Amino acid sequence: MVTLADVARHAGVSASTVSYVLSGKRSISTATRERIQHSIDALGYRPHAGARALAGGRTSILALMMPLRAGLYVPVMMEIAMAVTTTARAHGYDVLLLTGEEGSEAVRRVEGSAIADGMIVMDVELDDPRLPLLREAERPAVLVGLPADPAGLDCVDLDFAAAGARCVDHLAGLGHRRLAVLGEPPAVYARGTGYAERTLAGVRAAAEHGVDLLHRPVDGTYAAVFAAVTRIFGERPGTTALLVQNEAAVEPLLAVLRHQGRAVPEDVSVAAVCPDQVAAHASVPLTAVAVPAQDMGRIAVERLVARLRGGAAPETELLAPRLTVRAGTGPAPAAPGDGRGRG
Q1: Of 237, 67, 249, 30, which is closest to residue 145 (Cα–Cα)?
Q2: Predicted model pTM
Q3: Under a CB-based contact definition with an 8 Å cutoff, are residues 272 and 278 in contact?
Q4: 60: how many CB neighbours lie within 10 A of its CB?
Q5: How far apart are CA 188 and CA 219, in angstroms?
Q6: What is the CA 337 to chain-centroid distance, rounded?
Q7: CB neighbours of residue 317 within 10 Å
Q8: Could you tell me the pLDDT band of residue 186, with boundaries at 50, 70 and 90?
Q9: Residue among 106, 142, 108 nearest 124 (CA)
Q10: Whole-angstrom Cα distance, residue 302 to residue 248?
Q11: Are 67 and 99 in contact (CB under 8 A)?
Q12: Is the CB of residue 74 less than 8 Å from the CB of residue 97?
């Protein structure tokens, strides 16, 4: 690894002179500065983040705040993180991943040090305690998520309210009038996580037009899903459609329905809000609104880089939902005695 001392020897100057060139603390002649820069280029020297920060106030590092908290589906989080990392490298930035549940303290740490030029913030709550600090921070931030009040913040997310409504409209168009939602784990709703609450709000708004709705938060284990589904059909035996917003619950749900002798979609239709790969590769391919994790990560970095380069103001960008119809949904089954039958 090339050191500052190596650069100094190559350029024929003292280490302190190289340091002054990097930090800009003292005036160095043009000839000496050019000689040092030539040595830096020839040796492939890369100053550490602190030295780069002193030189120009920039570290070429972006901080990604991805707290790994209860109820989160880690594969989706990691897909966003990979898109952030890949896009950041394409723009000349490295990524510092912060996975602890530090909340506001993590924002203070990044803002009060020279470890990163800007922040990308994930797992956003409706009333996120990090928001006041982010609004006042000198370093720009982009949220992958949408709080209740996004004023003054840069946000990118799927339009989850529209996604929930789109699923309800699709099922209602197939004749389903009794719908149950298997939602995220209870811990996600307890935190007031934005995407879960907004999806539910969209579902409820769309269901006001003639759809009887039941919502059950559920952990993604087989036992939890079995208990929830049994309770749903016990309380609402006429339920003909299920909407899932819980990736971990998809396969347990399909297994429970098979165990109970309910065919999909002949007896019950199943739709989801989840990544395409989860829906398409389920044991019964599910009609779903895709969660565009890669797009969200990419756009977040592009927005942050634009902010750092002085070319953009904070705004909210919600990605339009895209519903793909698959084998999981079909016409509502005929009610006993209505004369339709299934043919």
Answers
A1: 67
A2: 0.82
A3: yes
A4: 17
A5: 10
A6: 47
A7: 15
A8: very high
A9: 142
A10: 30
A11: yes
A12: no
Q: Quick one: CA dihedral 270, 272, 277, 280, positive or negative?
A: positive
The answer to whether the beta carbons of residues 122 and 66 sit under 8 Å apart is yes
> What is the C-alpha separation between 332 and 343, in angstroms, rounded?
13
**H or E element in which residue 301 lies:** helix 293-308
Neighbours of 136 (CB within 10 A): 10
Q: Give the helix/strand (H/E) hosting 278.
A: helix 276-280
Tokens of 174: 């197939």
pLDDT tens per residue across span 94-145? 999 998 877 888 898 888 777 899 999 999 999 999 999 999 988 999 999 9
Q: Which amino acid is it at 274?
A: C
Which residues lie across from 287 on neighbouring strands? 271
| Dist CA 265 CA 332 (whole Å) | 8
Encode pLDDT of 298-310 as tens digits. 999 999 999 998 8
Overall residue count recorded for the chain in this entry? 343
What sections of 148-275 are H helices per DSSP? 160-173, 186-190, 194-207, 222-235, 250-259
Structure tokens at 124: 């956003």
Q: Are 113 and 61 in contact (CB under 8 A)?
A: no
| Residue 318 φ/ψ, nearest 5 degrees | -105, 125
Amino acid at 204: R
Catalogue the E-assigned strands of the chain.
Answer: 61-65, 94-98, 118-121, 141-144, 154-158, 178-183, 212-217, 241-244, 269-274, 287-290, 316-319, 323-324
